[in-house]
Amino acid sequence: MANNPNYPAMRILDDQYTHPAGILVSDFYSQPYGYTCYRPEGTKDWLIMYTLSGRGSIYNGDGEYLACTERMLTIVSPGTPQNYFTVEGYTWEKLWAHFLPRLNWMDWLPSSNTKGPIFHLHIDNENSSRALESAFRRVLSYRLHRDVLLRDELTLNALEEIILLVASQNQRKKELDPRISEVLEILATNYMEEHLVEDLASRVCLSPSRLSHLFKEQVGDSIVETLIKYRLNQAEKLIKYTVRPITEIALGVGFNSPDYFSKKFTGYFGISPSNYRKQQRDRVN
Prior knowledge:
Blueprint: E1 22-32, E2 36-39, E3 46-53, E4 56-59, E5 65-68, E6 72-76, E7 82-86, E8 91-100, E9 119-122, H1 126-144, H2 151-175, H3 178-189, H4 197-203, H5 208-219, H6 223-241, H7 246-252, H8 258-269, H9 273-284
Antiparallel strand pairs: 1-8, 2-7, 3-6, 3-8, 4-5, 4-7, 6-9
Helix pairs in contact: 1-2, 4-5, 6-8
């Protein structure tokens, strides 16, 4: 679908720094199963993707596929083969941009943190997640409104904010105990499933009590509280961007009781799920 030889990101000079820094193309996608992108030679620019909801998958080489779930930030460097798609049974909602960086960004752009060439980071912090989405949407807004003065500079500044937020989150991840990072990754990728502390502790070779203590110390919330937040944030996106019944959404993200979901959602967002959906629709209209 996206393997188009006339795609703007494919028409860049061999030396990317002979081309002015900036965003080549960016958009919001909500793509159902069947959406694929395959560029075996990659592109000569950088690709950044931020998943809002649903589930995508991106090939990382050597038979490894990485899950693109809510709050997952993915960066693909120039020349890296690109092979990604929407997972069956899901709609993948993401914000993305192809860009050429300013030279000073190179100190902030992260190198691979996976077994292959791709950088893949879950944004745990709620404030950082909201800031990232806001900056992405400003990128889209500036590019659409050509009458805005200094539009290109405003767009670049919004993209620079994204790069700095990612660099900040990546540094925070490095400071976390790797066993806690692994548990966070498990919870973020499989938020709809039930997780026993005993099973998670076994995965990271800790006792349940030691894992619970260390997790609370480093993350600030308990394992159960963190899992509930992942589910609530996923539910919020589905309520906002889809017309699926709220009860179906509650069950789909891992809540066994719609009433319990409504109570938790209201406590977290300060508004009931049904009123939140109405509020979002009124804003659009």
